[in-house]
């Protein structure tokens, strides 16, 4: 999995980039289907079909470009039909709207740990290809994809009760924000990607530790660890992008960048779509910290036992995902 991503990120030739993506896809198939139940097999099949189709389109686009320009360089993607095809294929690989249908289904069919890999590590290779070809991609197409994704990610997440599906729509919305700013300020796209990866990792670790697969399960988090409950609340609010927390930084910088380019209507729609996402994050926050599920006397004692989970990574990622906002001026200097 790691090798595939690294090959794509370091390649100059389209064929090598394609080989990396293909390795990446084939490596995660057994990881998704480890559960040996029909649901995970279905998820693995869906993942394979969408990724293989997207990879084939990427190969086709690069061949078209090579046929027209005589070069296989990743950065020399100058033929217009080729770069539009590539944008669509990468959007399909990332799960951007309107090619997002596979993502919630695949996450729902896999374990929480696998869902974490799909929503974080699997985004790196396609994002690096977007970053490398940015100079030649169509800004209008990217902004349209980003707008659609942020709206769909917020809207479709509203009626979900499964935490994995909520995280899938959250991922779609966050990627929408990244793609919108990508052609205007690529460095902010990278910053947003890094913060998104850290916040998602921290939240998935909390969900894995508390075994929360549905919203209902999150009501029992306090029995495991009162500290975890508080952290989860702040993490969710950070993911939603509320001001005193880290999650607000990328949204603030993106809106600022869009307004600076006279794209005020786009910025307004993006900000409104963030409210949709905020609703389902708030609902998760509410069930996690402010409601009690019917419980027995034994559940109250659970938090006294030590959890057997690597807390260091979770502690570090949680801290970064909460306290990074004051550092913003340093990054802008």
From TrEMBL:
Main localization of the protein described in the UniProt heading: mitochondrion
Catalytic activity as recorded in UniProt: a ubiquinone + NADH + 5 H(+)(in) = a ubiquinol + NAD(+) + 4 H(+)(out)
Alphabetic keyword roster: Electron transport, Membrane, Mitochondrion, Mitochondrion inner membrane, NAD, Respiratory chain, Translocase, Transmembrane, Transmembrane helix, Transport, Ubiquinone
Superkingdom, natural source: Eukaryota
The keyword Mitochondrion is annotated on this UniProt entry: yes
Transmembrane segments: 15-35, 47-64, 84-103, 140-159, 166-184, 190-209, 221-242, 262-282, 311-332
Residues covered by the NADH dehydrogenase subunit 2 C-terminal domain: 278-332
A GO biological-process term: mitochondrial electron transport, NADH to ubiquinone
Enzyme Commission code(s) on record: 7.1.1.2
GO molecular-function term, one example from the UniProt record: NADH dehydrogenase (ubiquinone) activity
GO cellular component: mitochondrial inner membrane
Membrane topology, as annotated: Multi-pass membrane protein
Any Pfam family the entry gives: Proton_antipo_M
Limits of the NADH:quinone oxidoreductase/Mrp antiporter transmembrane domain: 11-276
InterPro entries in alphabetical order: Complex_I_Subunit_2 (IPR050175), NADH_DH_su2_C (IPR010933), NADH_UbQ_OxRdtase_chain2 (IPR003917), ND/Mrp_TM (IPR001750)
Localisation: Mitochondrion inner membrane
Record family assignment: Belongs to the complex I subunit 2 family.
UniProt function note: Core subunit of the mitochondrial membrane respiratory chain NADH dehydrogenase (Complex I) which catalyzes electron transfer from NADH through the respiratory chain, using ubiquinone as an electron acceptor. Essential for the catalytic activity and assembly of complex I.
Name this polypeptide is given: NADH-ubiquinone oxidoreductase chain 2
């Amino acid at each position: 999995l790691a090798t595939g991503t690294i090959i794509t990120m370091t390649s100059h030739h389209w064929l090598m980039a394609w080989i990396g993506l293909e390795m990446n896809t084939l490596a995660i198939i057994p990881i998704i289907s480890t559960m040996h139940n029909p649901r995970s097999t279905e998820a693995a099949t869906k993942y394979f079909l969408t990724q293989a189709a997207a990879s084939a389109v990427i190969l086709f686009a690069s061949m078209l470009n090579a046929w027209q320009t005589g070069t296989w360089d990743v950065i020399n993607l100058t033929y217009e039909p080729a770069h539009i095809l590539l944008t669509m294929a990468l959007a399909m690989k990332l799960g951007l709207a309107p090619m997002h249908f596979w993502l919630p289904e695949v996450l729902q069919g896999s374990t929480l740990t696998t869902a974490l890999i799909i929503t974080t590590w699997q985004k790196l290779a396609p994002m690096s290809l977007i970053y490398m070809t940015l100079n030649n991609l169509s800004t209008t197409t990217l902004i349209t994809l980003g707008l659609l994704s942020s709206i769909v990610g917020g809207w479709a997440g509203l009626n979900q009760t499964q935490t994995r599906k909520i995280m899938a729509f959250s991922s779609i919305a966050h990627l929408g924000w990244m793609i919108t700013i990508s052609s205007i300020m690529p460095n902010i796209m990278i910053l947003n990607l890094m913060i998104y990866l850290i916040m998602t990792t921290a939240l998935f670790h909390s969900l894995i530790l508390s075994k929360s697969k549905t919203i209902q399960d999150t009501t029992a988090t306090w029995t495991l660890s009162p500290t975890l409950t508080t952290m989860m609340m702040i993490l969710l609010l950070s993911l939603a992008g509320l001001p005193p927390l880290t999650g607000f930084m990328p949204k603030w910088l993106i809106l600022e960048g869009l307004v600076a380019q006279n794209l005020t209507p786009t910025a307004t729609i993006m900000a409104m779509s963030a409210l949709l996402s905020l609703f389902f994050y708030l609902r998760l926050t509410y069930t996690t910290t402010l409601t009690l599920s019917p419980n027995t006397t034994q559940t109250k004692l659970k938090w006294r036992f030590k959890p057997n989970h690597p807390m260091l990574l979770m502690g570090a990622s949680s801290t970064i995902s909460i306290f990074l906002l004051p550092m913003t001026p340093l990054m802008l200097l």
